[in-house]
Amino acid sequence: MQQISVSPVFVGRGSEITELTDALRRAGTGSPQAILIGGEAGVGKTRLLEEFLQRAADRGAVTSLGSCLEVGAEGLPYAPLAAALRRLHRSMGAELEAAAAGSEGHLSRLLSELGEADGEPNDEYSRARLFEHTARLFERLGTDRTLVLAVEDLHWSDRSTRELLAFLVRTLHSSRVLLVATYRSDDLHRRHPLRPFLAELDRLRTVQRLELARFDRREVAAQLAGILGTAVPERQLVDRIHRRSEGNPFFVEELATAFDDGCGAGLTDSLRDILLVRVEGLDEEAQRVVRIAAEGGSHVEHALLAAVLDDDEESLIEALRSAVGANILRPDSEGEGYRFRHALVREAVSDDLLPGERHRINRKFALAVEAQPQLVPGDALPARLANYWYHAHDPARALPTALNAARAARRRNAFAEQLGMLERALELWDMVTEDVLAHTLRPYDWAETYPPGSCDHKAADEDCDRIQLEDVLAEAVVAARRCGDRERGLSLAKRGLRLVDETVHPVRAAWFRINRARMLGSLRRSGDEEEIAHALRLVEHLPPSAVQAEVLALGAGSAMLKKPGPEHLELAERAIRIAQQVGAHSVEVHARMTLGGLRYDVQGDAEGGLAELVGAVERARRLGVPDLLLRGINNLASLQRGLGRAADAVKLAREGLEFADGSGLLRNIGTILTGNLVEALIDLGRVREAEEVLAASELTSLSGTHAEFLDRMRGELTLLKGDLPGAATMLAQARAANRVGQVQHSVPISRLAVRLAAVAGRPLEARAELLAALAEDGRLSHESDVYPLLVEAAAVEADSRGLPEAEAGRPGALAAIAAAAAELRPRAPLHHGWARLLEAELARAEGADTPAQWAAAIEALRPPGLPYPLALALLRAGEAEVRAGRREAAAELLREAAELAAVRDDRPLAAQIAGLAERAGLNLAPRERAAAAAAPAAAAGDSFNLTPRERDVLRLLSRGWTNRQIAEELYISPKTASVHVSNILGKLAVGGRGEAGALAHRLRLFPDDQALSGR
User: Fold this and answer.
1) Residue range 673-688: average pLDDT?
2) Tell me: the pLDDT tens digits for 814-839?
3) pLDDT tens, 306-344?
4) CB-CB neighbours of 113 under 10 Å
5) Residue 265 above 70 pLDDT?
6) Distance (Å) of CA 412 to CA 193, 407, 818
7) At what angle do helices 486-499 and 469-482 cross, to 10 degrees?
8) Bridge-based pairing state of the strands 299-301 and 329-331
9) pLDDT tens-digit profile of 992-1001?
10) Using CA atoms, how far apart are residues 860 and 878, in angstroms rounded to an integer?
11) Which 3 state secondary structure label does DSSP give 4?
C-alpha cells in the first residue's frame, strides 16, 4: 500500500468510510460502483483513500492505485490507469495475463509488459477497441473477487484517461468492480475540463459523489493529539491551529509540525509561507534537491534526479534522507523514485523559484533524459521530454519533441493528447529558425489520405521530406476529429486552407475541404455539401490519387444519404477505379459499398446492389478492417430488410453485433446495428424479442450516435401497446436529432407521427405530418419506407371521409399522395404488395374501393409474409366483404387479420378489427368454437336499456360523428341512424347529441375508445 500522509491517526470521516464500505459491499454482489471524492487541496482525500484501500484489502478485495501527473498531463495519456495496471500485474502476475488473453495486442498500449501492440490503424475505432478490451479485462479480474481501482488527482487527468474512466463507469455491468477517484474541487474553475466529466457521471445511478468538508474543532484536536503524541493537546494550541488552518488537515499537520519544532510563533499568515516553512528548515543542500525535484514532476525517478544533480551519491542520499525525514518527500511504492508528500508543497516550492532558475532546471532534466532515455519509463519518455524542453523555454528543442510526443500519443490512440502536442507545435512553429525547421523535425507522421510535403514529388526538391506547417495542421485536423473536438477541427482545417494555395496544391486543399465536410456533417450544420462540391471541382481533372478517390467516394456517399442520381453512381464507379490504381484499398471498399446502395436507389437494381454489397463485405473481411466490415454488414442488413427479407436482415444484424462486440466496436456502431435488428424483428412480428434486444442495448450503454433510431423503435413498440403518450415522448426524442434530408431517418419518423395521430383520432394532424414530410424530402425514394407512409396517410383520408373539418384539404392531400406514389418504383415483391395496398386505400378514400382490389393486395403481400401489411389488407378486404353482404367471407378475412395482429401484439389494429366485427355482428372465434361461444357478457350501457345496435351508434356519436358517417360505418341508412340517435337521446334523458357524448365519456361507457385517444 502506498503511504503518502504523515498523521499517525485517522480522524473523523466516519460517514465517508461508511459510504465507501457500502459501495464495496454492493460491488461485491456484482453491481459495479463508482465513487468520486472531491475536496479542496489538503482536506484529506489521500488519507481517506489510503484508509479505505487498506480496509478493502483486509476484506479480501484486490486494490490498485494510480495517480494523475501534473507535469506533462497533456501528453501522458492513461497515466493513472497504466500505473494501476502495472501494480496489478506485479501483484497478480499470471492471473492478470490469463485475464488479458486474446487482448494483449490492444492492452499493451496501457501495459507494455503484455507484449507488442497490434499493427491495426491508430484511428477512433482502434481507440474504441482499446476501451472495450480494458473493460473486459476488469470484468474478468472481478469475476471471483472484488476489484477496487483507485485514481488520485483527477483534476490533472488527461482527456483520454477521463474518457476511458467514463467508458468503464458506463459499461461495466454485473462485475465486482469499484472505481474510486479523487479530485480537487477548489481547482475546478468554470472552464476546467473535469467539470463536464463530473456532470456527465452525475446522471448515472451507480455513481456517487462525496465532498470532504474541513475538520471542526473537535476533529482538529484529535488530529493534533495524534501528531503531537499527547492525550489532550492544550486548548490554546487547538484554538490557534484550528483558527489558522481553518480546519484543513494538511495545514493542521504543517502548523503542528512547526509548533513541535519550536517555531510556531514566527509563522506568517501567508499560505505559501506555511507550506514552505518545513522546506526552509532543511539544510542548503537538501533545499536544493527539493527545488530541483519540484520541477521533475509529481513523481521523479531517483536515477533521473541523480543525473540532473550530478552530485556525489552519498551527498544526494543524505539530502534526500533529510527531505524524507522532514515529510517533504516520500519514496514511491515501487522504491524507484520520490513524490512530494502533498502537491501543494511541490507547487509552493516551484512557485518560489526564479524564472531563470526554473528554465535552467528543466533544461537539465531534458538533457539528462536525452542522454539516458532509460531513466524514465518508455511510454512516458516522449511527453516528459517534450514538457521539459517546453518549460525550459527552448523552442528549438521543444518543437521537435512536441511533434515526437504527438506521434507517440497517436500510436496509443490518445487523440486528445496528440492534438494538445500538435497545437503546442503550432504555437512554437514561428519561434524557431529555418535551420531548425529544415534539420531537426521528424518527417510527416500520418493523417489518413493526406498528401504530405510542399512540393511536387516528381520534382527533385530537397524540401519534399520536410514536414511543413500545413502537414502539422493536417495531423491536428485528424486528431481533433478523432477525439471528438470537431469545432477545433473545423478551425484547424480553415487555417490549413488559408495556408494552402489551391491553384498550386489542389489535392491538399481538397483534403482539407472534405475533412471540413465530415465535421460539419457530424455537427449537423449546413455547408458540408458546398465543401464536397468545391473539393470535387479541385480534383476533377487531376491525375489519380488517394485524395481524389476519397473525394469522389465521399461525394457519392453523401448523396446516397440524401437525393442520389445517376451522376453519383458514376462518382462511386470512378472512385473505385482510381482507388484501385493508387492502391487505396479501404477507400475502394467504401466506394463499393456506396455503389451497392446506389445501384438499388438510382438504378432500381435490387439484385445488382445486393451482389455489390456482398462482394464489398467479403473484401472488407480480407482487408481485416473491422469498422469497414461493420459498415458493409450494416448496409447489407438494411437493404435486405428494405426488400422485405427481414429474416435475412435479422441474421446479418446479429452477426454484425457479435463481430462488433468481439472487436471492441459495439458501443461505437452498435446503436445502428441494434436499430436494424429491432426494426426487422418488428417486421416479422417478433415483438417480444425486439423488446429484449432494446432492453439489452440499454445495459450495454451504446453511444448517442443514431440514438434517434432506437428512440423511434421504442416509439413503435410503445404505440403497438396503445400507449399514446409514451409513443409521443419517443417520437419527440427521435425528432430532436434533426437529421434533415436523410430519408432513411426522416420518413420512418414521419410515418410514426402519422400513425400516432391516426390512432389518436386526429386526422388533420396526420395530414399535416404527411404534407410536411413530402415538402421536406421532395422527390422520395426508399420504397420500403415511403410506401408504408403513403398507405398510412391514405387510410387516414379514407377514415375521415365525410368529416366536415377534414373536407377542405382532402383533395390536395390525396393528390400529393398519388404524386409521391407515381415517383416510386417497386423493386421487390413487398413493394408491389404495398403498391397494391396504396391503390386500394386511395380508392377507399374516394368511396370506390372493391373487394377485388383488396384481394389483389392480399395476393401480393402473402409471399413476403410480413404480418402488418398483410393484416391491413385483410382488414380492409373484410370491410369490403361486409359491405357486399358476404358475411362468411368477411369473418374469415377478419379472423386471419386478428391472428396477425395478435402475433405483433398490435393493440390499436386489433381494436379496429374487433370493432368492425362487432359492428357487423361477426363472430371471429375459430369455427369449431363459434357454435359453443358463450352469450356475451353485459355490455356498457345496459343500465340504460340500450340495444347492441344503439350502443354501436352511441359509441360513434360520442366520437362526434354525423348520422351519415354512422350509417356508412354500420352499413345502415342515414334515416335509420337518425332513428337510433333519437331513441338514445330519450333513453339517456339528455337534450342533444353533445350531451349524449359527454355522458358517455363521463360514465366511461366505452373505455377502449378513451384509452386509444390518450384520455
Assistant:
1) 96
2) 999 999 999 898 989 999 999 999 99
3) 999 987 889 999 999 999 988 889 898 776 899 887 777
4) 14
5) no
6) 21, 9, 57
7) 160
8) unpaired
9) 887 787 777 7
10) 17
11) coil
Within the chain, how many helices (H) and strands (E) appear?
51, 8
**Biggest alpha carbon distance in the chain?**
117
Total residues belonging to the chain: 1015
What are all long-range contacts of 937-946, with beta carbons under 8 Å and residues at least 24 apart? 940/1004, 940/1005, 940/1006, 940/1007, 941/1005, 944/987, 944/988, 945/987, 946/984, 946/987
Please enumerate in sequence order all residues whose Cβ is within 8 A of that of 491, keeping only pairs 6 or more positions apart, or say none: none
Q: What is the DSSP string of 564-603?
A: --HHHHHHHHHHHHHHHHHT-HHHHHHHHHHHHHHHHHTT
* DSSP H or E run through 208: strand 207-211
> Which is it for the CA torsion 522, 525, 526, 527, positive or negative?
negative
Nearest 10 degrees: CA dihedral of 229, 235, 238, 242? 160
Q: In DSSP terms, which residues pair with 507 in a beta bridge?
A: none
Separation of alpha carbons 834 and 841, rounded Å: 10
180: β partners: 35, 150
Q: Which residue has the higher pLDDT, 980 or 264?
A: 980
Q: Specify the pLDDT at position 646.
A: 96
Strand-strand pairing, 33-39 and 177-184: parallel
Mind listing the pLDDT tens digit for each residue in 48-89? Answer: 999 999 999 999 999 999 988 875 445 578 889 999 999 999
Angle of helix 626-642 versus helix 124-141 axis, rounded to 10: 100
SS3 content of the chain, % helix, strand, coil (to 5): 65, 5, 30
Backbone φ and ψ of 77, nearest 5°: -65, 140
The answer to whether 671 touches 709, Cβ cutoff 8 Å, is yes
Do 550 and 514 form a contact (C-beta atoms < 8 A)? yes
Comparing CA positions, the residue from 191, 154, 151, 150 lying closest to residue 39 is 154
Residue 790 CB contacts under 8 Å (≥ 6 apart), including other chains: 770, 817, 820, 821, 838
DSSP 1004: T
Q: What residue type is 153 in one-letter code?
A: D
For residue 499, the tally of other CB atoms under 10 A from its CB is 15
User: Has residue 455 got a pLDDT over 80?
Assistant: no
pLDDT band at 457 (very low <50, low <70, confident <90, very high): very low
Say how far apart CA 591 and CA 602 lie, in whole Å: 15
How do beta strands 177-184 and 147-152 pair?
Answer: parallel
Q: What is the CA radius of gyration of the chain?
A: 36
List phi, psi (to 5°) of 600: -75, -50
DSSP per residue over 236-259, as a string? HHHHHHHHHHTT-HHHHHHHHHHH
Query: Cβ distance 952 to 918 under 8 Å?
Result: yes
Report the predicted TM-score, pTM, of the whole model to 2 decimal places. 0.77
- Which pLDDT score is estimated for 273? 74
